[in-house]
Specification:
Helix content: 55-70%
Number of helices: 6
Strand content: 5-15%
Largest sheet: 7 strands, parallel
Oligomer: single chain
Radius of gyration: 33 Å
Distance between the termini: 123 Å
């Protein structure tokens, strides 16, 4: 029974290290990984783990954990130290006679192939799930954008048109204002969060204010998002040679569809590329926030320049 338990423990070690090897030696700390040339741990060098496949491995230094190889020729030289085991799936292992206490475990190359296939299938399933989640998120954003676009059309369609026009006329200034506005928003949220965490009393008093600030920022971002989609929709319409008059919502919807298509296709090909495309959507939205701030600044100046009270009537001619 004791021998059986020992063998089961060794098989557990083999499986665990095979997983590490299959995942290309992703372990804690510094790991020596297989390279296009022979893998060498030089004398005086110390690593956590060695994982190699179809390579020559020469251990002259110190390995704190295991050496795991597939179809490799492993040599443990004089003066080397291995804290774990040398686990070989196929290939050969030679240990210098002066090295003591190195445990060598041989496993068949067929086992390595089976593990490669199993973990390859697992990674494929995980990638498919990630792509499915990405597409679902893009569908949700498209539906949300269409709904928000309808609300903007009903509540503030004229303002959205003005903001979109400002974004087209002053893109650089809109970007600067948008960055400043976004930084200010994050600063306000951070200040409110700090006040809320300072004490339970301050947290209770500042909670309604924090909620109002967060809701206000969310509404501005949603409105600006639709203004940006209006601009993108106009650009897409020109590309499609449909630059005639169209409703605000249709152009917003066209802009949303453009980003939906680009983000979805890019994300299916590569998640990192999809995130990069979504960053472009965020970038245009930040510019729209800046255009909104420019419009608000102009409105403020107009109101500040007007005289208080009703305008004086001019005297009638001849009086």
């Amino acid at each position: 029974m004791r021998a059986r338990g020992h063998w089961q423990g060794r098989m557990g070690i083999i499986a665990a290290n095979a997983i590490v090897l299959t995942l290309v030696g992703l372990g804690s700390g510094r790991a020596a990984l297989a390279a296009p040339k022979p893998l060498v741990v030089e004398a005086g060098q110390s690593v956590d783990r060695v994982a190699a496949k179809d390579r020559t491995v020469d251990i002259e230094g110190s390995v704190r954990e295991d050496v795991v190889t597939v179809n490799s020729a492993v040599h443990i030289g004089a003066g080397a130290a291995v804290g774990g085991s040398v686990i070989a799936f196929g290939g050969s292992v030679t240990v210098d006679p002066t090295v003591r206490g190195v445990q060598v475990v041989h496993a068949s190359a067929a086992s390595a192939s089976a593990l490669d296939a199993a973990f390859g299938s697992t990674r494929h399933a995980a990638d498919n799930k990630q792509r499915h989640n990405w597409v679902s998120m893009q569908i949700f954003l498209l539906a949300l954008g269409l709904l928000v676009g309808l609300i903007v059309l009903v509540v503030a369609g004229g303002v959205a048109e003005n903001v979109a026009s400002t974004l087209v006329a002053q893109p650089g200034r809109s970007l600067v204002y948008g960055i400043v506005g976004g930084a200010t928003s994050f600063l306000l949220l951070a200040i409110n969060d700090g006040i809320a965490k300072s004490s339970p009393v301050m947290g209770a008093l500042s909670s309604p204010i924090s909620g109002m600030v967060a809701i206000g920022i969310l509404l501005v971002a949603a409105f600006s998002w639709q203004c940006a989609m209006r601009v993108v929709g106009n650009a897409a319409a020109r590309r499609l040679h449909r630059s005639g008059d169209s409703t605000l919502w249709r152009r917003m919807a066209l802009g949303l569809l453009v980003f939906f298509a680009v983000n979805t296709i890019a994300g299916i090909a590569n998640i990192g590329l999809g995130v990069l495309c979504m960053s472009a959507e965020v970038f245009v939205t930040v510019m729209a926030i800046g255009a909104l701030l420019i419009r608000l600044q102009a409105l403020w100046r107009d109101r500040a320049g007007r005289p208080v009270g009703p305008p004086r009537s001019s005297p009638a001619p001849g009086t």
